[in-house]
Amino acid sequence: MRYGYFAYEQRKTSIKDMAFEFIGFAEVNPESPEYDRSAERLHDWALGLLTTCNHEAGYFVFNYGQVGEDGEPEDILATLDVAWNGDRELAAT
């Protein structure tokens, strides 16, 4: 089984619709000593991605879970929503 972090930017496309644009993925190494804490590290990974990639202000959704055969998340173990102002996090849930 493979596990990883998935990142999406959530955008409003109309009054009632939202779209999710895929912005990043990182596979978690099961040999890493931090492997057991992967779900706890989702927040750190998320902010690192937003900072490193210089993302503009927006609303972002991050998941940690099992990677399906198609490369998409299959079994989500942790989810994080972040409002980002382009420099720092405004809120997390």
SSE arrangement, N to C: EEHEEE
Q: What are the low-pLDDT stretches, counting only 5+ consecutive residues below 50?
A: none
Strand content: over 45%
- Main sheet record: 5 strands, antiparallel
Number of domains: 1
**What's the rounded overall pLDDT mean?**
90
The helix tally amounts to 1
Counting helices, strands and paired strands, the structural category is: mainly beta
Shape: globular
Strand tally:
5
Radius of gyration, in angstroms, nearest whole number = 13 Å
Reading side by side through the largest sheet, how are the strands ordered? Answer: 2-1-3-4-5
- What gap, in angstroms, lies between the N and C termini? 28 Å
Helical content stands at 10-25%
Could you explain the architecture of this structure?
With 93 residues, the protein is mainly beta. The chain has one domain. The chain has one helix at 42-52; strands spanning 3-12, 18-27, 58-67, 73-84, 89-92. A 5-stranded antiparallel sheet has the order 2-1-3-4-5, covered by helices on one side. A hairpin with a 4-residue loop joins strand 4 (73-84) and strand 5 (89-92).
